[in-house]
Amino acid sequence: MNLPVIIKFVIDLLAVLLLALGIKGLSKVKSARDANRLAAFAMSLSVVGLLSYYLGTSGVAIQSWIWIIIGSFIGSLFGAILAKKVPMTSMPETVALFNGCGGMSSLLVALGVAIFPISSGQENFDFFKSIINEVSISVSVFVGAITFTGSIVAMAKLQGWLSTPGWTQSKVRHFVNIVFAVASLIAFFDLINGNTSSIWLLVIVSSLLGIGVTLPIGGADMPVVISLLNSYSGIAAAAAGFVVDSQLLIVAGAMVGAAGLILTQVMCKGMNRSLVSVLFGGSLSAQSTASSGSGEYTNITSCSVEECALTLEAANKVIIVPGYGLAVAQAQHTLREVTKKLEQNGIEVVYAIHPVAGRMPGHMNVLLAEADVPYEQLKEMDVVNPDFPATDVVLVLGANDVVNPQAKNDSSSPLYGMPVLDVQEARTVFVIKRGMSAGYSGIKNDLFDLPNTSMVFGDAKKVLNDLIGELKDLGVGEK
Amino acid sequence: MSFISLLWVLLLGSLLGLELIGKVPPTLHTPLMSGANAISGITMLAALTLIVKAEGNVPLLIIGSVSLGFALFNVVGGFFVTDRMLAMFSRKPSNKK
């Protein structure tokens, strides 16, 4: 072994070690930030390793340098700008977009190798010689394309650019997707038989399959899909590793693929959904509109911000249930103002965080941390549920399905079995909401009909601002 | 590298990935997802290889360059955005009386 080979070998080993430590560290709150930087460092190290290897062996042509610089400059620039500018509330679609681009990259590498079998003397870099290479190319194209189109559809749905078309909720979609899958298989075997042009067929049908599988999935299940697609992009990277014969790519891709799968599993558990029902069951809302979505509210009590403020002032213990609506209204900072006032008056304030609060598991924690809410005040569902009977006031802000008692009481409800926050156990519940519209699931919320529940209608941010004014008038927090 | 040893690498890498994430608190689901997502942009190495091996084949150079761009968009954006999220957790809890 000559020197460049040894250097690359050592650097690759080091990079794998650091990446593994990075993923490990990311699963603990204390070490997460350093772990993320460690992983970023390992990635740059791997680039240095690869480039120094080529410089030491075959050399890198000036033309290659130019294209390397153009590609990396544009990609990094846009990536950095988006990462800095995007609001915390749009995190799910941002992750989906980044993920899709990773899949696209693997797809392009495999495509490039498939169309232009490159040969460079010494290393026997001739691809289309063995079936193995064709299999790796096909897998890389197939998984890469599904990751790309799937992620883009997921992003578009989360942004609200795409809705769920009706036909995708019928059995037709299974038929359509099976047709795409079979067509991919045909293209795959055709490719192995030596028909190079069928790579295009593979690209097209696997892209369509990615769309066909993601399109029917409803908003609430989208995080699970993104996590799964994230796992796919790891598999695509590993397949690309087989294509260019790189162990580092295979290890890193396999690690991300496997870790992504575990994360998907954990998320499914938190939402009480099985992965199979997420992927093949269709969106929850479409099923429910037929069954129990038509129920009418009979006993709605609405109240003014002033009454709400009076009740809050008299309370000893307040639990806040933040949800998607709070994230959309970007009201987390205003909420923090309100709770500060209450705390100054000696009222105990706790935030009850449902595992899927916000738009993605853990998203609400990020948003509240952004608003400077102390970490200790964020309580997870299992911890906070026994506290509700001893609580004077619960403020539900833009959450809906996660506080629906139907999930516990009504076995015919599509929500039945989902873990929920038992807010109805508290003495008084205020639900701050824009109107009577249903949540993600499209299901009527029995909580709103209960005698101890009062609705405060209005945009979360505006209501909270009014609340600050009312509390001021009452002299709360003026000590 | 023979194909068989590459398969071993794949197997062991997958097992490592399964083991690495044992208990993840829900708080970290979002950052972990976006951090792992950035790592999957490791396919930038494949794009680099493609460009270096292209030997003046311009269409291939372009494909490689576009692929590299997509990969780095994923990597750079992913790490930055993860850091932004995690920065909020590491902030000192505000001192209240």
From TrEMBL, chain B:
Q: What biological-process terms (Gene Ontology) are attached?
A: NADPH regeneration
Q: Which UniProt keywords apply?
A: Cell inner membrane, Cell membrane, Membrane, NAD, NADP, Oxidoreductase, Translocase, Transmembrane, Transmembrane helix
Enzyme class per UniProt = translocase
Query: What is the superkingdom listed in this entry's lineage?
Result: Bacteria
Which GO CC terms are listed, alphabetically?
A: plasma membrane
Key word Ribonucleoprotein present? no
Cite the EC number: 7.1.1.1
Give every NAD(P) transhydrogenase alpha subunit C-terminal domain span. 7-91
Q: Does the keyword Oxidoreductase apply?
A: yes
Membrane topology term reads:
Multi-pass membrane protein
- The UniProt transmembrane annotation reads 33-52, 59-81
- List, alphabetically, the PANTHER family matched: NAD(P) TRANSHYDROGENASE, PROTON-TRANSLOCATING NAD(P)(+) TRANSHYDROGENASE
Q: What does this protein do?
A: The transhydrogenation between NADH and NADP is coupled to respiration and ATP hydrolysis and functions as a proton pump across the membrane.
Q: What is this protein called?
A: proton-translocating NAD(P)(+) transhydrogenase
